Amino acid sequence: MKEYDVFVPLYYNDGRPIEPAKLDEVQRRLEAFDGMTFFPEPNHGFWRSGEHTYRDEIVIYRVISPLVEDARAFLRELKDELERDLDQREILIVERDVDVL
User: Fold this and answer.
1) Running along the chain, 101 residues long, what does each successive block of 10 average in pLDDT?
2) Which residues contact 65 (CB under 8 A, 6 or more apart)?
3) C-alpha dihedral (61, 85, 73, 63), degrees to nearest 10
4) Which long-range contacts (CB under 8 A, 24 or more apart) does 37-41 make?
């Protein structure tokens, strides 16, 4: 079983806020999974590319799936759509092994 965190920015690269309807759509899309957790509190982060440091504010959506290949295909498609729709160079999606007690 795998757990996936989808890191979604709250602002476009030019500083404008992402429209709440777009965040609602991410949540609606992730309802394809059997369960989802949304961490609505803004998280601050940074990443480096070459000599440039980027700073961002994000929210996190978490899903768990036993159907790893299906989940990966779905999330790859979602990642491409979010990068395009939110005008981002990269959307981070983290995959982890999980054991459920």
Assistant:
1) 97 93 96 93 88 90 97 98 94 95 90
2) 1, 2, 4, 33, 34, 71
3) 10
4) 37/61, 37/62, 37/63, 38/62
Query: What is the span of the domain harbouring residue 44?
Result: 2-6+13-97
Distance CA 31, CA 7 (A): 16
The domain that holds 39 is classified in CATH as 3.30.70
Task: For the full predicted model, state whether its pTM sits above 0.90.
Answer: yes
State the pLDDT at residue 45: 87
Measured distance CA(42)–CA(90) in Å, rounded: 18
